[in-house]
Amino acid sequence: MPALFPLRKALCIAILAMGVLLLQACSTVRLAYNQAPHLAYWQLNSYLNLSETQTERVRGELGDLHQWHRDTMLPCHAELLQKMQLQLPALISPEQACRIYDDARTQFEKVLAQAEPGFVWLASQLSEAQIRNLERKQADSNADWKMEWLELTPAKLREQRYKKLLSRVEGFYGTLEDPQKAVLRASIAQSSFDPRLAYGERVRRQKDLVQVLRSISADRGNTAQSRALLQAFVARMMASPDPAYQRYAQTLVDEGCEGFARLHNAMTPGQRQRAAQSLKGYEQDFLKLAAR
């Protein structure tokens, strides 16, 4: 699904999406990673229409974040991929899958913490016109999101999710046989995913971000307050303040771990070995990038 707001999307670009099933060829990984600061700047600018002064500072901050990530986090990502390689040839449990998810989430949170000072500065520099531009871009993005996910019959929604997941899974394991496709379809059919709930949380986060940015703008010189406001927003991004949505989100995580384990265990030994070999390529690619 598309990112919920530009700051998160820019960060996701900058840290090169840890979701293994989203990875493509190693050459693509290298190209995307080396272009990450430019792509992150482009995404931010498309939402905020940055001034020349802001552009200069933001490009520098993104360059510094990228270098820190290359030096510090790429070896960590490679270590996680190495850990996964040891597990993939065998059957795995939902608990093992969730531990990998937790490890990846922890690494993402480290990047968020490193990026915080730069985003605090940028938030304090935004004008009301830039915040209104952000709102317009959010509205446009929401219209696209609704068309893709909300304006579908349940059957068409399931089929769309199936096609997207099948493409990702086959890029990782190779061509699936009919029994394996049936496992994937069953996981989707049993999923608790509700686009209405997802859209509601999406809009909540967007409004939350706009409110935080306006609060920071109202007292630009108060860096401590700006930092506290942004940290609180990130906390609400990572864990919704709505207890019902928290339960829903955790259910999706649990189902995702169970579904991945079930599908992985339906693969042949050859398919699981192919997946492990793919991860070996990504691990080596990350280490090469880190050494540059």
Q: Which structural traits does this protein have?
A:
292 residues, 12 helices, 83% helix, 0% strand, disordered N terminus
Q: In one word, what is the shape?
A: globular
The overall pLDDT average reads 88
> What is the SS-derived class?
mainly alpha
What's the helix-strand series? HHHHHHHHHHHH
What is the terminal separation in angstroms?
Answer: 32 Å
What fraction, in percent, of the residue positions are helical? Answer: over 70%
Largest sheet data: none
Helical element count?
12
Over the alpha carbons, how many angstroms does the gyration radius reach? 20 Å
Number of strands: 0
Note poorly predicted spans: 1-26
As for the number of domains, it is 1
Task: Tell me the strand percentage band.
Answer: under 5%
Protein name: Lipoprotein
Organism: Acidovorax carolinensis
Can you give a write-up of this model?
- This protein has 292 residues and is mainly alpha-helical.
- The chain has one domain.
- The chain is 83% helix and 0% strand.
- The protein has helices spanning 6-14, 26-34, 36-48, 52-87, 94-125, 128-150, 154-173, 178-190, 195-218, 223-238, 243-265, 269-291.
- Helix 4 crosses helix 12, helix 5 packs antiparallel against helix 10 (223-238) and helix 6 (128-150) runs antiparallel to helix 9.
- It is globular.
- Residues 1-26 have low confidence and may be disordered.
List the helices and strands and how they pair.
Layout: H1 6-14, H2 26-34, H3 36-48, H4 52-87, H5 94-125, H6 128-150, H7 154-173, H8 178-190, H9 195-218, H10 223-238, H11 243-265, H12 269-291
